[in-house]
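step=encode ok
step=design start
structure_in=
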């Protein structure tokens, strides 16, 4: 049971020898579901509307009436596109109102109609647990007042005189807020907010407390949430999304996908993948059970736990990024292992020693492809294939890292391989 909105209006008309206006007592008002206007004149069985969205208000086996004329009551045989097909031909003028009068053929005697409208429910009082008007028909009181309550929607009203002859109508009567929340300005909601449909905001949406959304939130600007946010569907943000507390996403695969900056102030749980096109900032615990993909920077003020660290998003190295010292020989050649791609963070590089000047203590230096590390890094170089113990002297200051083989003399005509890992 729930409180529902209502509508009221007065019926007046001329009476007596003076033709003075006065309230009309005992007039009948039938409340129909919303109909539509005919978009073109016709004399056959097809009635055309301006669009399919209007036509969708009508369906097969429903009864319709053209204007107030009870001789123009027809049954809908089919409905498709922007038109309906009725059971027998009827003359329709452009801009005639086509009323949706129910699923049962009305009774018509001498031009007076009694409609049966089970698809419309209207009430005496402002709660859907109250008494209903039979056949959705309201009778005006001595003051000509018509009042009823109904679920939020748009309705049509057929007005009949005391003899139940159709004398007029009201179209597109709005009861309650039927179009949802729609704004291109600021929306500020200070307490609990429940939205069962779509919330579309092109500017700011600010929520101070709990927010529960069972549909989709689409924000092209900034969305700021100060407390708990629960999404049972998708969160789509093309601007910034800032969360100050716990964030749990259980929508489509539980994914977070963003082309800009992602900033999280506290606990974040993602059951799918986390993808950021720019900066990802995490202030506390972050749990991602799927892939973590960030093409920019990941910043975290706490520890990051994961199964493996796969570093493959940098600019690929080439042999020219390494410089061999003269101690490798005047004809030394640097090459990369051809079986993989390599980056500033990990690589396998070989030096072919050849030519004159080969001496003890050769040096190999890497100039970082993606620029200096922001802090002094911790490089680790490993040698292989030398057949003995080799002492290394490693320096790792920006913008390069280098290794000197302290007690090693290259072998002419041989390739000497190194593998390296750099953590900044």
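sequence_out=
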């Amino acid at each position: 049971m729930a409180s529902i909105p209502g509508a009221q209006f007065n019926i007046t008309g001329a009476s007596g020898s003076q033709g003075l206006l006065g309230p009309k007592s005992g007039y009948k008002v039938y409340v129909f579901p919303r109909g539509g206007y005919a978009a073109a004149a016709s004399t056959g069985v097809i009635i055309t509307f301006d669009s399919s969205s209007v036509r969708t208000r009508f369906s097969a086996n429903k009864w319709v009436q053209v204007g107030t004329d009870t001789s123009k009551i027809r049954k809908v045989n089919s409905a498709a596109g922007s038109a309906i097909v009725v059971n027998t031909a009827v003359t329709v003028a452009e801009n005639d109102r086509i009323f949706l009068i129910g699923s049962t053929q009305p009774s018509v005697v001498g031009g007076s109609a009694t409609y049966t409208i089970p698809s419309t429910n209207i009430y005496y009082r402002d709660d859907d647990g109250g008494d209903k008007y039979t056949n959705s028909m309201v009778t005006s009181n001595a003051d000509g007042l018509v009042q009823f309550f109904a679920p939020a929607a748009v309705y049509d009203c057929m007005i009949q005189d005391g003899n139940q002859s159709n004398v007029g109508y009201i179209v597109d009567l709005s009861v309650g807020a039927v179009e949802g929340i729609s704004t291109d300005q600021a929306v500020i909601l200070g307490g609990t907010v429940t939205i069962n449909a779509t919330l579309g905001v092109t500017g700011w949406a600010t929520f101070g407390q709990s927010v529960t959304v069972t549909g989709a939130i689409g924000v092209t600007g900034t969305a700021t949430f100060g407390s708990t946010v629960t999404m049972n569907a998708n969160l789509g943000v093309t601007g910034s999304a800032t969360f100050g507390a716990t964030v749990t996403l259980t929508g489509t695969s539980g994914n977070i996908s963003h082309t800009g900056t992602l900033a999280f102030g506290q606990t974040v749980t993602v059951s799918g993948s986390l993808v950021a096109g720019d900066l990802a900032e995490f202030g506390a615990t972050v749990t991602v059970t799927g892939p973590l993909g960030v093409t920019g920077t990941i910043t975290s003020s706490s520890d990051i736990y994961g199964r493996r660290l796969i570093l493959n998003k940098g600019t690929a190295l080439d042999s020219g990024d390494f410089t061999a010292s003269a101690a490798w020989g005047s004809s030394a050649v640097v090459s990369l292992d051809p079986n993989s791609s390599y980056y500033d963070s990990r690589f396998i590089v070989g030096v072919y020693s050849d030519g004159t000047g080969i001496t003890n203590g050769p040096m190999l230096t890497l100039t970082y492809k993606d620029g200096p590390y922001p802090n002094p890094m911790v490089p680790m170089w490993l040698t292989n294939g030398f057949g003995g113990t080799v002492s290394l002297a490693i320096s790792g200051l920006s913008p390069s890292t280098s290794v000197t083989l302290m007690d090693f003399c290259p072998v002419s005509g041989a390739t000497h391989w190194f593998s390296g890992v750099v953590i900044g």
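step=design ok
step=annotate ok -> DSSP finds one helix and 44 strands in the chain.
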